[in-house]
């Protein structure tokens, strides 16, 4: 499911600006447009209304026009934003933001590249050391076919900010087109060291490898590109001011996705809270918010939003699996078993659900049902994963079958020698059989793998310590 745009204000301005590009004097009496707010989300309508009112109150204010332009810009009203920025630049000629933002707006459609380049140059005349401006100008020049000028701007951007990934990739594309394959490759590999899923860098590097005759590496890159992300990591504080003016749920959602890709789940959660507040029936947003909360350790909120996801989209298998795991973690195995049984109805081939269902049944007191489910899963699936052997062993031990339980723990250790849980339970069984020295050895190995309170308790009871 994709996020539904529910009235961001795009294309809803009823009246255009009368400001004209290139005029020598500010048009202080330029009519201020009146957006049609009927279909806008409430928070978008409020932002438009407030910033427009500031322009009406003082039409000679460059800041008022510029702020209004930023709101228009953030919500992709390109023509109207461009006119507002021109007005702001004419009224306040020493603020590099207005020509900079204008250059960005004019570059979007690709039909006003010369005007876009001129705007960026005016911004750089006011602030020559701003690396993103050089980068954006370079990309515009590249789009206009001016490779050498573009390369010079991109090189300057990288002198000012060596980690500017979009500049590095664009410069690599120029070098690739000019036949400088080794330099292009070096630049792209440096980007992928920092951002291994950078889609544009991967696709361009695949081309470079192929032209260098490195076909195996090109094929490997093509495989990586299939799961690539579309993003460029760089800092542009000026453009960040525009981004912050975007308050529609669609724009907030996009920003949250960016935080997700960066692993910043706290910020992702903040944005997604706003999305679900505006779109309470958006199951995907609830699911993403649940995942974000889960990653920051807020189990209760994660569970709530998983339940909301399933109330809205009952066939969402991934959310149901995540809820089942959360229920197991919260020691609610019977409820987890219900969820897992439903998962297997929806996705009979799910690789983990049968093992989790067996664990849930055994943990809920249905020991016979749990053991039967373990047997069934083992008879119809690929080799049993190590963690499932541990859970199977625990169920067998609970039923008094210590010998077979020990075999499962040993099988788990053959697959995962560092499994602290398999080591601990092996020690527990050996301790119960009176084989204390062997038990202590397993306990100490468990502590080496992952220090844990249960093992500490057993060692204290035995009056032993590990070397």
What characteristics describe this protein?
single chain, 467 residues, mainly alpha, Serine Threonine Protein Phosphatase 5, Tetratricopeptide repeat, 25 helices, 70% helix
Walk me through this protein's architecture.
The protein has helices at residues 42-57, 62-74, 78-91, 97-109, 113-126, 131-143, 147-160, 165-177, 181-194, 199-211, 215-225, 237-243, 249-261, 265-278, 283-295, 299-312, 317-329, 333-346, 353-363, 367-380, 386-398, 402-415, 420-432, 436-449, 453-462. With 467 residues, the protein is an all-alpha fold. The chain has a domain at 42-225: Serine Threonine Protein Phosphatase 5, Tetratricopeptide repeat, CATH 1.25.40. Helix 7 runs antiparallel to helix 8 and helix 9 (181-194) packs antiparallel against helix 10 (199-211).
Task: Write a brief caption for the model.
This protein is an all-alpha fold and 467 residues long. It has a domain at 42-225: Tetratricopeptide repeat domain (Serine Threonine Protein Phosphatase 5, Tetratricopeptide repeat), CATH 1.25.40.10.
């Amino acid at each position: 499911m994709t996020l539904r745009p529910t009235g961001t204000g795009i294309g809803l301005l009823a009246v255009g600006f009368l400001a004209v590009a290139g005029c020598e004097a500010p048009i202080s009496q330029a009519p201020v447009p009146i957006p049609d707010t009927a279909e806008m989300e409430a928070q978008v309508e409020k932002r438009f209304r407030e910033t427009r009112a500031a322009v009406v109150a003082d039409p000679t204010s460059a800041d008022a026009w510029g702020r209004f332009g930023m709101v228009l810009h953030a919500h992709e009203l390109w023509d109207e934003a461009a006119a507002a920025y021109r007005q702001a630049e004419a009224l306040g000629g020493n603020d590099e933001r207005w020509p900079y933002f204008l250059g960005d707006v004019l570059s979007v459609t690709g039909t006003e590249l010369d005007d876009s380049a001129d705007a960026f140059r005016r911004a750089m005349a006011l602030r020559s050391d701003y690396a993103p401006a050089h980068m954006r100008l370079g990309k515009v020049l590249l789009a206009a076919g001016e490779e050498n000028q573009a390369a010079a701007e991109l090189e300057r951007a990288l002198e000012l900010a060596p980690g500017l990934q979009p500049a590095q990739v664009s410069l690599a594309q120029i070098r690739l087109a000019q036949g400088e394959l080794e330099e292009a490759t070096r630049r792209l590999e440096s980007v992928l060291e920092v951002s291994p899923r950078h889609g544009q860098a991967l696709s361009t590097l695949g081309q470079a490898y192929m032209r260098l005759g490195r076909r195996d590496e090109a094929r490997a890159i093509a495989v990586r590109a299939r799961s690539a992300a579309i993003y460029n990591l760089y800092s542009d504080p000026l453009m960040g001011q525009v981004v912050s003016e975007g308050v529609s749920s669609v724009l907030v959602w996009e920003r949250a996705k960016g935080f997700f890709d960066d692993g910043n789940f706290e910020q992702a959660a903040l944005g997604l809270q706003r999305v679900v507040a505006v779109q309470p029936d958006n199951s995907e947003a609830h699911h993403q918010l649940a995942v974000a909360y889960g990653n920051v350790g807020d189990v209760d909120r994660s569970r709530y939003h998983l339940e909301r996801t399933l109330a809205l989209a009952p066939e969402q298998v991934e959310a149901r699996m995540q809820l089942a795991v959360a229920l197991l973690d919260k020691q609610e195995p019977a409820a987890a078993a219900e969820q897992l049984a439903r998962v297997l109805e929806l996705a009979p081939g799910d690789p983990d659900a049968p093992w989790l269902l067996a664990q849930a049944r055994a943990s809920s007191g249905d020991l016979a049902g749990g053991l039967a489910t373990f047997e069934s899963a083992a008879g119809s699936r690929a080799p049993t994963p190590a963690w499932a052997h541990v859970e199977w062993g625990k169920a067998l031990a609970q039923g008094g079958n210590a010998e077979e339980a020990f075999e499962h723990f040993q099988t788990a250790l053959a697959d995962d020698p560092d499994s602290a849980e398999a080591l601990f339970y092996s020690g527990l069984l050996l301790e119960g059989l009176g084989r204390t020295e062997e038990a202590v050895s397993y306990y100490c190995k468990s502590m080496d793998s992952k220090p844990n309170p249960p093992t500490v308790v057993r060692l204290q009871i035995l009056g032993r310590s590990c070397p």
